Q: What sequence folds into this?
């Protein structure tokens, strides 16, 4: 399998003299299987030089490829209008993106090609373009096994795992840690049971045994506290999970636009030092434009499969959500956000009222604040889990202003499915609600 990096920058393209080594184009990576089938991860500005290269090499032969979009934020789709093979009749492209965006994938891509912004509209492109919106699952593209899993970002975002030719390549961009702390206090790093949050454990499992993991590492650990909830990782997080997950090579990508070549080189040095302490057999590097790699499978007898968690729900339409908070303004924000996504909303102002509504209305999921009068969120959760009825299994997303490990562990020990730290934005609420339902689905599958 052949892999080539055409764009490694995040957020916005940054061409110039300070980014010559690692590149300034936004995300785009080409993967070609031994049979010649082509995958393209994301269509940032890096897809433009990729398209020119494909035209030069195609020798008038039709080009057939699948474009796997992690999500549809602008830095991951902005190069698509400049992808020249889409302007050639006879070429065929399948464009894949996550479900749950609120608009169809075709509408999203055509939006940036309206005549106000671009001279050629999407439906005028001569190439044959098909659109597929996927949830979590296992799919076949060009004879390759493609596994998808939702990752943690303020917008719906998929990670992709391609298995073909005895090789495993995993693409995880843009992703943020689920928990402020990766490891449980007092637990040694490097073991799945030491991971504090089930979401991070699930993320590690998705990359297990990969020959190459391409992972978001936009921030340094020093930068991350000011960027929390923006949807990106640090190199430490990526290295720790990859080292634990039997990964052979880890490519750090989605470089921050403020990071010049010297900064990224220093990130690479620090990441490699950490990798030597965690798994000295794993090769870690910062991806750069023009890097081309031939990936071969392992010659060892190690197990190459992963145990897939049950898929997360891909459609939240008509699901009933109970929002519990004593702050009417927060309830108003949450209800307005979730109604736009198609949820049916009920509200409660404290724990006592919440338990009554749970019994009467049987919600599919509960959004629960911790600090409330009469009956606080933690006691409400404990009573809910102690119930003898089916409501004790309802997934609960905790809202908390306390992101420390003690509060996190207390919530999970009481039966929380997931949690969201205040303050949060509407996209973060919808993303974490989906993650909450993912955790509940996975837990149900193990019972």
A:
């Amino acid at each position: 399998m052949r892999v080539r990096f055409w764009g490694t920058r995040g957020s916005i393209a940054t061409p110039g003299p300070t980014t010559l080594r690692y590149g300034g184009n936004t995300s785009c990576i080409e993967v070609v299987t031994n049979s010649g089938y082509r995958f393209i991860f994301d269509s940032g500005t890096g897809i433009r030089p990729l398209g020119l290269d494909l035209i030069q090499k195609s020798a008038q032969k039709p080009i057939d490829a699948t474009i796997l979009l992690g999500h549809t934020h602008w830095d991951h789709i902005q190069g698509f209008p400049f992808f020249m093979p889409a302007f050639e009749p006879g070429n065929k492209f399948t464009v894949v993106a996550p479900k749950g965006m609120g608009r169809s994938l075709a509408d999203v891509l055509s939006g940036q090609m309206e005549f106000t912004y671009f001279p050629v509209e999407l439906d005028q492109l001569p190439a044959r373009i098909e659109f597929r919106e996927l949830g979590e699952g296992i799919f076949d593209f060009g004879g390759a096994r493609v596994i998808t899993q939702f990752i943690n970002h303020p917008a719906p975002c998929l990670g992709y795992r391609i298995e073909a030719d005895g090789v495993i390549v995993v693409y995880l961009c843009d992703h943020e840690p689920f928990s402020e702390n990766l490891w449980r206090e007092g637990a040694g790093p490097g073991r799945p049971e030491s991971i504090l949050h089930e979401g991070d454990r699930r993320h590690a499992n998705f990359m297990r045994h990969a020959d190459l993991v391409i992972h978001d590492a936009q921030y340094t650990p020093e930068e991350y506290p000011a960027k929390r909830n923006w949807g990106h990782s640090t190199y430490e997080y990526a290295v720790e999970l990859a080292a634990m997950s039997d990964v052979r090579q880890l490519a750090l990508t989605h470089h921050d636009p403020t990071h010049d070549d010297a900064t990224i080189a220093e990130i690479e040095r620090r990441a490699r030092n950490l990798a030597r302490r965690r798994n000295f057999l794993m090769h870690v590097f910062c991806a750069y434009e023009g890097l081309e790699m031939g990936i071969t499978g392992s010659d060892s007898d190690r197990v190459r499969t992963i145990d897939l968690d049950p898929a997360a729900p891909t459609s939240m339409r008509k699901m009933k959500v109970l929002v519990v908070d004593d702050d009417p303004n927060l309830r108003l924000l949450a209800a307005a956000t979730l109604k736009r996504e198609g949820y049916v909303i009920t509200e409660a102002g404290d724990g006592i009222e919440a338990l009554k509504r749970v019994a009467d209305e049987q919600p599919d999921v509960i959004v629960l604040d911790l600090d409330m009068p009469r009956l606080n969120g933690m006691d409400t959760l404990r009573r809910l889990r102690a119930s003898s009825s089916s409501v004790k299994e309802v997934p609960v997303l905790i809202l908390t202003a306390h992101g420390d490990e003690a509060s996190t562990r207390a919530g999970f020990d009481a039966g929380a499915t997931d949690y969201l730290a205040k303050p949060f934005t509407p996209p973060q609420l919808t993303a974490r609600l989906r993650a909450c339902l993912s955790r509940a689905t996975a837990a149900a599958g193990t019972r």
Remarks:
- The radius of gyration is 22 Å.
- The chain has a mean pLDDT of 90.
